[in-house]
Design a protein that fits this description.
Layout (H helix, E strand, L loop, with lengths): L9 H19 L6 H7 L4 H7 L3 H25 L4 H23 L3 H7 L4 H24 L8 H20 L9 H22 L2 H7 L1
Helix pairs in contact: 1-2, 1-4, 1-5, 2-3, 4-5, 5-7, 5-9, 7-8, 8-9
C-alpha cells in the first residue's frame, strides 16, 4: 500500500478528492467505480488524479481512513454528552454499527474481492482495533471509578466485549457474500447486539446499580 502524504497546499486538494471519491464509492461501491469517474467528479484529468493517488485502492484506503477519523471524533462528541458508562457502551455499539453499514456501502464487494482487499487494509484494521480497545477500556475504567461497574480487569473486560461483538457479526453475516448483505441482515445483527448489551452491562454493573435499573 502506497502511503499518501498530507502536506503543504496539497492538503485541501487531497481532501477534496477524497470527498468526491467517498460520494462515488457510497453510490456505486469500489468495484463499480472507476478512477475516470472520480476524476470527472473532481473536475480534473485522470492523469492529475493519479498524481495524488497511484490507484483506486490507495484512494479507497484514504476514504476508509477518513471514515475512521470521523467515527472516533463522533464517538468522543457523543461520550462527552453522556454520564452513564452503560449508555456510553450502547452509544459505541450504535455508532460502530453505523460505521459498519457505511463500510459495506462503500465497498459493495464480492467475497473474493473483499479477501483480496483485506491485506491492503491491514494497517487501518489494526489501527481501528487498537483505538476501539482503548476506547472501551477507558469506559470500563470510568465505570469502575464511579462504582457503576464492578472492580474488574478493564483490559480483559474490553477484550471480551469487542470479541463478543465480532462473534455476533460473524454469526450473523459470515455466510453471506458482502455484496449480498441486505438491510434486513444488518437489522437482525443489530438486534442480537442489543440483547447482548443488556446482558453484558447488567453482568458487570455493581449490584446496587443493577437493582436500581431493574
Amino acid at each position: 500500500m502506497v502511503k499518501i502524504q498530507y502536506s503543504g497546499d496539497k492538503r485541501d486538494k487531497i481532501d477534496f478528492i477524497i470527498g468526491m471519491a467517498q460520494n462515488r464509492f457510497g453510490l456505486f461501491g469500489l468495484e463499480k467505480t472507476t478512477m475516470s469517474e472520480i476524476a470527472s467528479d473532481a473536475g480534473m484529468s485522470k492523469a492529475s488524479l493519479y498524481y495524488y493517488f497511484p490507484d483506486k485502492v490507495s484512494l479507497f484506503h484514504a476514504v476508509i481512513k477518513k471514515e475512521q477519523e470521523e467515527f472516533f471524533r463522533f464517538l468522543d462528541e457523543t461520550r462527552s454528552k453522556l454520564t452513564s458508562p452503560g449508555e456510553m457502551l450502547r452509544a459505541y455499539v450504535q455508532t460502530r454499527n453505523e460505521y459498519f453499514r457505511t463500510f459495506i456501502n462503500l465497498s459493495k464487494l464480492r467475497l473474493n474481492a473483499m479477501r483480496e482487499l483485506r491485506p491492503m487494509m491491514v494497517d487501518l484494521i489494526e489501527t481501528l482495533k487498537g483505538k476501539e480497545m482503548e476506547y472501551i477500556r477507558n469506559i470500563i475504567n470510568l465505570g469502575k471509578g464511579t462504582s457503576f461497574f464492578r472492580n474488574l480487569n478493564a483490559t480483559e473486560v474490553a477484550a471480551i466485549f469487542l470479541e463478543s461483538l465480532q462473534a455476533i457479526r460473524r454469526s450473523s453475516l459470515g455466510k453471506i457474500d458482502p455484496a449480498g448483505i441486505e438491510p434486513a441482515d444488518l437489522s437482525l445483527m443489530e438486534a442480537k447486539m442489543e440483547v447482548f448489551l443488556d446482558i453484558f452491562i447488567h453482568g458487570i454493573c455493581n449490584r446496587r446499580v443493577s437493582e436500581a435499573e431493574s
